[in-house]
User: What shape does this take?
Amino acid sequence: MWLGAHVGISEGLDVAAQTGRRIGCESIQIFSKSPQMWAGPSIPEPAAAAFRRAVAAEGLRAPSIHHGYLANLASPKKATLKRSRVAFLDELTRAELLGVQNLIFHPGASLDGGPEAGVATLVESLDGAFRAVPDGRVRVLLENSAGQGTSIGSTFEQLAEVLGRLAEPARAGIAIDTCHLFASGVDFRTESDYGAMVDRLAAAVDLRAVGAFHLNDAKADLGSHLDRHENIGKGKIGTDGFRHFVNDPRWAEVPGYLETPLTEDDYAAYIADLATLRELLSSPSEAPARRAGRGRRPTA
Assistant: This one.
């Protein structure tokens, strides 16, 4: 796994890439604008080019943009849905300009429209965005949810349903947040539980659909449906759950981004969390079952 983190862009897009490498990232995730804004200032081509050069110069792999928090591509409310689709198309266009590999987003919530209608609306939203950006290179990744309220995507099966109904399924995939996964009720802390989780994932989707991980420990208990991130090894998941992920060769070329709590001491918490994850790599014999079975990641 390419270990990295979500880094800020306040000092410049190119500086974000440099910061990522400085703190020990092999890959980075960024916001392309404030996550609390429907629309942000346009990105000048020189700034985009500087970012692309910095990513290459720092040797970063599979950079990603995380979409903002306001959009709901599954909303039954016409005004919200229209605004969300405009925001998503803008973000996808920005991602293409910056040359990132992935655009990660929250699938949204069906609210009072019901899950079936929510999934259908989400599929329509993504199909529309793909038509508006033909031949796009960026893959959009649906992030699994913690199962709170009417949020879409708390199960592998529901994420698979969305992917399977898209007109261009190759342009989409999933991002797995470990905190969300745990909060949704999926335990993966033991070797057997991790193996069962991957088998369930593989039964739902081709494992090549997994385009990124968010590596976050969880403050809340298993099945709490609470999205509360904690630093690696300090939450309810503990280091063993992460040992399974980082040592699994099926994820060798998949980025894993920290979104763990930061302190006022710059990125010191990220540096510590990355060190913890890399220490786990020293014990591959304790990694999960990577033998035959449905959970094997295809090589082609």
Notes: The radius of gyration is 18 Å. The first strand starts at residue 2 and ends at 6. The CA atoms of residues 71 and 88 lie 7 Å apart.
